[in-house]
Every structure is written in structure tokens, then in C-alpha cells.
Amino acid sequence: MQAKKRYLILFSVGVSLILLLYLQGPASRRTPNRGDDPHPHWPPFSDPLQAFIPWDQTETEDYNVRASPRHKRDDNSGASKCRMDSCFDFSLCRRNGFKVYVYPQQKGEKISESYQNILSSIEGSRFYTSDPGQACLFVLNLDTLDRDQLSPQYVHNLKTKIQNLNLWNNGRNHLIFNLYSGTWPDYTEDLGFDIGQAMLAKASISTENFRPNFDISIPLFSKDHPRTGGERGYLKYNTIPPFRKYVLVFKGKRYLTGIGSDTRNALHHIHNSEDVVLLTTCKHGKDWQKHKDARCDKDNAEYDRYDYKEMLHNSTFCLVPRGRRLGSFRFLEALQAACVPVMLSNGWELPFSEIIDWRTASVIGDERLLLQIPSTVRSIHQDRILSLRQQTQFLWEAYFSSVEKIVLTTLEIIQDRVLQHNARSTLMWNQLPGGLFTLPQYSSYLGDFPFFYAVLGVKPQQKFTAVIHAVTPLVSQSQPIFKLLVAVAKSQYCAQIIVLWNCDKPLPAKHRWPATSVPVIVIEGESKVMSSRFLPYENIRTDAVLSLDEDTVLSTTEVDFAFTVWQSFPERIVGYPARSHFWDSNKERWGYTSKWTNDYSMVLTGAAFYHRYYNYLYTHYLPSSLKSMVDQLSNCEDILMNFLVSAVTKMPPIKVTQKKQYKETMMGQFSSPKNNPDHFAQRQTCMNKFASWFGTMPLVHSQMRLDPVLFKDQVSILRKKYKDIERL
């Protein structure tokens, strides 16, 4: 009985426990998870919360100083994520091509000389349009170069002025140029106004704030940087081995405190006063003595002992450390001096990094590994040094020697983005003659340009097209043009002859022309102007063009020999009538001479071979102002072509053997513009006008003339390949 009672009590307790668990619900039986916690734990945040800033204070100068450019762009319609496909309207470029509009200058607005040079370079380029309706890209007339609030060039109220521009459209399809941003003590990259969706062409831009394939990093250049032309590089000849007096040099300011001070303050650790000469001075600024340290006096004394230019010209490597900003004037100075720049500015997006392979022209160092720099540059092989040095000269002259080249390179990069199917290849940008002279609209195949034959291992075609410029009517079968046609047609290398009819009289009937073994095509010149002789006619299908005046007297042998020579120098003008230029110190201008002298700098296109690409370059690269001058004078087109080719190649033309009476024969034939008494004076004027536009004198003198082997040698005439040349 007692046992039964105990079992009943245990059973009752068990049932009670089961009921109790059931009444507490199923939640008590689940494995707890993060969603069931009524008081969840917040994940840790690495960045502390920023102080709240009222909306009406976000445009104050205090906010502009404290907020980074990227943080501020994040607050403005995703501008930091801008790329060409998201923040650029390509439809504006499809209507009229790549055209650039510069806003007209507003009354009372002052513009610095440097910014005026930028605007003038755009207005003088082939991209410029004065009609905003035709524009693909817009450039402000407001000076945005110097955005340091302590600078006298700083433009106030820029935000309001920009927002009032009718075409601003939140910066879409706009390009903003800037050299200096931020101010003491942080020197941030903020411009002090909302750039919206505009592209930045900016100096000293960091990789953090750089928007790839949208912004463009440009070099920092001084106010004295030439607008056009610019000086050539300082490397006159290559020395083997390519070592100089110093291995590594630097001379510049040392900042005792603040941003940019760490690297320059540490340079004394690797300075040895022998082949590694790194000089700094803290003697700058109004109150430098208040902050000077124990090394200042010693550094200042040694700083004054060395001449900076002498160091540049006699050093293999030049250190380019960051200053207050990432970029430095030392960068361009080193390039020009053929002193291989050693970059010491972590986070700097190098100038034109989108197109230039800087590994071929510089050494990229690390500020954190300063002590390793001397051993690193000493370990570079002399062959590599020679290659680096040569590339510095090419890059300097191609893209950096003038404000105009910097601006045009910027515009060409943007055009390549817009016209992606016609964009330049890396090789075009990084090899002579450079991207500015290699127009991809001509061809996408490198083998169609004369500059890349050696790289590709190809040769020009074995045929040529003769283009005879005719300006006088046909009145007699004894005219030189008929004899010229027959002589050229007999050449084994002639593919066809084009007669460019620039005469006021109607086209002659076909039966008036002599019968030849090659096709003779007669076409009317466009508008009957001189520049039409250099148009890229579709009829010209050969690489080589033989340009001829109608009164030229040449034999078949002379044509064959000149073409053979041209095949070895396809990037140059090769021909017969030579001329020269000189500097007239009395009149302080360039002079032109046709005298027979011991040197020459031009080969006239009255009897010369050149590559057909130069027709395209003449038509599409040169400004309309120069071509209009040629057409108005009916003169100087041959001089302009020589200027262009020498500017591209940096080399002189090549003169080949000719008979002595060539000049006198040509000048005495029929009625020719060359017999005009003003002809010579006009050519003098042209020389100086052309030199002014190029910004320098591109013509190069030469004393070389190429003759056939065995020419004038005392051997049998039967052994000579071009025997007829000696009989003329």
C-alpha cells in the first residue's frame, strides 16, 4: 500500500513538470540565436562618429578644410564614382566630333598668366570651337589653377560664379585645370567648390582621390614655363658608359614641421658630399629662424656651396621627393636635364599615368625605404641607365616642354576615351614621335606609320605614287610637264601618276596627255589652293609619294635613285632642291636662302619623296591659320611641310645627288610664281610665322648628301648602277 502511494506521488510530480515546461512555450526549447536577443550587441566600428554638422554649415570654409575631397564628393551625387560612362555625355561628341569650347572671359575677372596660356593653347588648337552648340568638352574662363586661400591668385566666390554659368550642368562634360589646392597646414586636395561631374586635370593628385579613366594627372609647372615650343632636352649626345660626376642629387627646401617634412628632414642620412649630394635649406619663409633646428646653419652653408644647374647636368639620377604637396618642380627639371628622376612621393598619381609607362624613364622609390635608395640606383646597369636617360628626353620634348604640349596631351587623352575605336596604343604614346604626332584616325595599324617600321620589322611598299602640281594651262607639247610625265612613268618603281590640276583653265582632254605605261589620273584641286597638293587623296595607295612641280626637270635614273634612298629613310623627306635657314641677328628674325652652301635644312617638295602619312598630318594637325596663309600667298607650302616633318622627326631631310644646272633650269621655265619678285620676301615672312606657331625653329641643318656608290669614281661607266646621273 505504501509503495503504491509513493508511485502515485512520483507520477504526479512528473506530470506537473511536463505541464510546466509545456506552458513556458517552445521558445525555451530552441537554440538561442542573434535574432532572439532583445538587446543585440552592435558590431564594432573602426571610425568614431563624426560630429553633427547642420546642413546650413556644410559650405563654410571650416567644413571645407576638415572634410576630405573624396568625402565631400561622396556627398555630391556620387561624383567620386564618376567614370566616362556615368558622368560624360558622349552624344555631344557624335554630332561634330571632339570639339572644345572655352567660356568667354567675364568682365572684371582676372586670369593668371599660366591659366591664360592654357586657354590660349586650347583656342589655338584644332579642337577649338567658338560655338558651344558644337562642343563636346567645356573649359571654364574662371581661373581655377591656384586654390590656396593664402595665394594672391586665389579667386573668391568661385562656387557662386560657376553655378551661374548657363552650361555648367553640374559639371558634366567640363574640364577643370588645377595646379595648387589646399592651404596651410593640411594642404588637402580640396578646391573649395563643388566640381560636380567635371573632370579634373590636376597636379599633385593622390591615387586615393584620383578617379581612374576620368581625371588626368598633370605635372606641376612654374609660371615661367613656355607657352609653346619650349627648350630641347639637355642631352646633346650619349656618353658610354652613361655615368656622370654625381650618382644622386637634390637641392631644395626642408620643412621643419607639418606635412611633407618627414622625407626631406631625413635626406641627410644618405648625403655623403661626394657622389650622393642631397642639399636642403630651412632658410625660407618669414619666421624660419623661430623654428630652426640644430642642423639648419650647417645645411644652409652647404646648400650655398653648390650650383643647382651644374648638379642637374652632371648627375645620373635626381631625387624628386614630395614637398608640401605630392608634386614638385624638380620633376620637370630632372626630365629636361636627362637626369633620371627617382620618385619619392608615396601615393602620387604620376603625370599622364594613363598613357605613359614611367618604368621606362624613372625609378619609383618608397619614402619608407629611404636608406635603400643609394644602393638601389647604384645597382642599375649602365645599359638600363642609357635607356632611361633617352626616354626622359623623348617624354620631355613630346609632352612636357611647354604648356601647349601639356594641354594638348590632356585633350588627346580625353579624345581617345571618347573615340575608343580610334584610341592610340601604348606603343604610340611611349615611342617616337609620340602620341601628339601619331593620329589614330589615320589608321589603327602601326605598320601604316613610317615611325614603326623598324619596331615591327616591316618595310615600306616597293612602289610610289607621283603627284604633279599643275598651275599653268597646256599650250605646247614642249612644256616640261610632258617630259616629266614620260620620265617618271618609265621608273620601275612608279605605280601611278596623279596630276593635280590647280589651273584656272578647264581640265584638258584625255588625249592631250602622253601615253604612258602607268595610269595617269587627273583631278581638280580643291578650291584651287596650294594646300590642296598635300590633301590625303584616296587615290594615293602607296606609302611613298613623289611630289613634283610641273616645271621640274628630272630623269628616270634620278627618280629611281631618290626612291631607293627614301626606302632607307621613310620617315624623312628625301629629294633634290635644297634650301637653308639662318638667324639674321641684325633684323632679329629668321632668314631664308637658296644659295648653294655647305649645309641645308630643307628639301623642297618640288622634287621630293615623303610618306603619305604626312599628307594626313598636314591636313588634320596643322591649324587653319597657317594653311590659309599658304593659300592666300600661293607660296610656302613646301616650307610648311618641311617644318612639319622636322618637328615630328627632330631630324633634317636628306638631299640626294642632282645635276648642277637643276636650279637654273627650273627657274627659267615659262611663267611661274617663283619668278614673282615678291616670292622670296613672302618666304622670309612665312619662315617667321611658322616658327612662331611651332614655338621654336624645328628645322635642323645637315651637311650630308647621298650619292650613288661609285659616283664620280674613276672606273668604267658600265660598272655603275646609276650611270646616267653623271651624264646629265
TrEMBL record:
Organism: Cyprinus carpio
UniProt record, GO biological process: heparan sulfate proteoglycan biosynthetic process; ossification
Chief location category: endoplasmic reticulum
Entry protein name: Exostosin glycosyltransferase 1a
Gene3D superfamilies xrefs: Spore Coat Polysaccharide Biosynthesis Protein SpsA, Chain A
Membrane topology note: Single-pass type II membrane protein
GO cellular component annotations of the record: endoplasmic reticulum membrane; Golgi apparatus
Transmembrane spans: 7-25
Pathway: Protein modification; protein glycosylation
